[in-house]
Amino acid sequence: MAEHHVVVIGGGFGGLEAVNGLKNANVRITLIDRRNHHLFQPLLYQVAVTTLATSEIAWPIRTLYRDQPHVRTILAEVVGVDPNDKIVRLDNGQTMDYDTLIIATGSTHAYFGKDEWAHVAPGLKTLEDATMIRRRILRAFEAAELEQDTDKRRALLTFAIIGAGPTGVEMAGIIAELAHKTLHGEFRSFDPAEARIILIEGGPRVLSAFTPELSEYTRNSLEKLGVEVRTDSIVSGCSEEGVSIGEEFIAARTIVWAAGVQASPAAKWLGVEADRAGRAIVDENLRPAGLSDVYVIGDTAAVASNGKPVPGIAPAAKQMGAYVARRIRSKLAGTELPGRFNYRHQGNLATIGTRSAVVDFGKIKLRGALAWWLWGIAHIYFLIGTRSRMSVAWSWLWIYLTGQRSARLITQKEAAPPPAPPST
Amino acid sequence: MAEHHVVVIGGGFGGLEAVNGLKNANVRITLIDRRNHHLFQPLLYQVAVTTLATSEIAWPIRTLYRDQPHVRTILAEVVGVDPNDKIVRLDNGQTMDYDTLIIATGSTHAYFGKDEWAHVAPGLKTLEDATMIRRRILRAFEAAELEQDTDKRRALLTFAIIGAGPTGVEMAGIIAELAHKTLHGEFRSFDPAEARIILIEGGPRVLSAFTPELSEYTRNSLEKLGVEVRTDSIVSGCSEEGVSIGEEFIAARTIVWAAGVQASPAAKWLGVEADRAGRAIVDENLRPAGLSDVYVIGDTAAVASNGKPVPGIAPAAKQMGAYVARRIRSKLAGTELPGRFNYRHQGNLATIGTRSAVVDFGKIKLRGALAWWLWGIAHIYFLIGTRSRMSVAWSWLWIYLTGQRSARLITQKEAAPPPAPPST
Question: Which InterPro entries does UniProt cross-reference here (chains A, B) (predicted)?
Fold first, then answer.
């Protein structure tokens, strides 16, 4: 058994890429995650809108490394790190020594100090988030079928999505299609096409990471699908009854949060400096100051490359994971260490409903049906394993041909709301 | 709009068959279910053992009737019936008049007075039951990877299934395959083949509804798969620590209940006589005594046919649903009413792992691989819609070819145990 022990916390894109990069290196690896599955987050919104089933975008992590005896997978929650003694603490009381530690624990939703909004405006980070949002969307239509009060029915059929980045745009587009196409003819007391889908963005345009032309195209496409796009609109309140934009109140019983993220507490564990989003500030080699055997990668880390902050997206996490693996290999082999981490931006992609997308590869910019096919092929390519690729391709093909979505299940009961916060 | 209003409570096999049988009859129908989906219960155990995804065996009920405007689907829980005023009461406070009422609300688990076992020995009736059992099975293996105490690990790797009817037999066979084949090579601190699967049956043989020869064959097949079969074994206790058979205690952290069912409270709603399992006693036309406009069908009803009690299985529920629809049509048309309900038993089927099954069609009895193919084809045939048939066929084919199961996800947190019952 190899002597050098690498502990990787987090089985997301960054963590898996680091483990993969250390294949056949002379190390033993322990991969710790609090979930038993790797989740393909870029398609998570499709679970929330009944397009895909949970098992199509999630894979048991330990299956991926079944043939690599040097990798041990642990299902546990990390509660702390002691970088002086080089120890990771688990929630079951056990500890684990490491020689090198890679923290790739991702991020969660941020409500900008309004944590009381979390219960009424869930974000989309886990499979449970997705099935909860799916449940709320479907239940709203079901409740509308029984509602006799016109105003209340209107509120039930109003869906507000806060934040017009790729996730918000994609959610809004598919909810519109769900309401206006998939559910057509299924209700007797109202026409699901009456459903109102509102996409609310604080900034001046949707998809701000894309070019203004693609943003404009996206806005027009969404509006053709029946989405109301509200830019320059700062949300001032969220409740069970609806959402407020400044002084204006919109009655909406379903609210989805796609507006901000907060890094996981890696910086706190390590006692190192963090930026405003809670991301650990790391050097050009992805190490927090003063800790030469710890790397922080993915959207848990704050780092700049070529003078610009590296975005919190899957390709960046994968590049960081691969970089760290290269560094560890070089160090153990005694060869020259790779230089500073350089992020190569490969492009931005987002879909708008079933037959349209926008793609920005820098020099190449595409929109419409061709972009949509490219988006679909790229995402299928990045899924893990033949089984998932065929299954997702088949699910999409079925919806493309029939308009029918198979994962329209209301499961699990809604948890009771949390107790009211103490008044301050 | 038709004048005669038929209310159907329950979108299971019986309820849907009744609605289907009333197509083009001069009635309007309201179908009430507390879930938004019809569930193909015969394959539910395959969700619990990671073979199938939830969406492969469940369909949104309202989609089935999108093209039948005379059918209205309601997602609501029925809390009572007033047969004098011909009213159904819903949980949201609304009421609904009916001209004819069909109750097809199914059954739930029965713990024979030991309701405190329910939390540690869940049964298998809903999608949530299935994902909970799946979570417990997978978590047990995960916890075993971290457990350093040999006895505790042994308890984590012991799975007790109580009740050796078709569900118990099928669960035991597939858990054995999961442990001994699918998980092979994925753990570092133990060999999953060490897992102990115990099938506990109070009666003298497994699959008591089948012939003794097929029972014997099934027992031998299970034992070859590594299942310990304990017949004539009455469970005297269930706890978080394990299961007791008489004086013997078996440490087992995962227990599945497949031993008994209790009818839903239709008899209580109606104020009519019930049998010991809580089923409403109905006449030869499936009506409770004194209520000429109410039918109770499926495993909510206690009725005999040809001198034998009709079993609580899907084909019986479907036959009852079709019979009641025929009766209603005849009554409205003023033609001769069909005679008494006659149950035609079509046979018994059960699988034992992936390549073996037993089939008892009365004169024709099959076992082994041929029976397994027949079982598979029959079940795919009875699924609803091309999409599900192809999806399930594909999932099974993939497992058959690769041994890999795709739905190995631990989702949702375990609910806290219920408060201890008051001491008596």
Answer: FAD/NAD-bd_sf, FAD/NAD-binding_dom, NDH-2, NDH2-like_C
